[in-house]
Amino acid sequence: MTNERRVLVHPDKDTLAGAVAARFITKVLDLLDDQDVVHVVLTGGSMGAAMLEAVRDSPAHKSVDWARVHFWWGDERWVPTGHEDRNDRQSREALLDSLGLPDGNLHPFPASDSGMSLDEAAEAYAAELGRFGAAGYPHPVFDIVFLGVGPDGHVASLFPHRSGIQVVDRPVIAVRESPKPPPERLSLTRPVINAAQRVWLVLAGADKASALGLALAGASRDEVPVAGIKGRRRTVFFIDQDAAAEVPDSLIAREY
Ligand SMILES: O=C1O[C@H](COP(=O)(O)O)[C@@H](O)[C@H](O)[C@H]1O
Question: Can you give the C-alpha Rg of the chain in angstroms?
Answer without folding.
Answer: 17
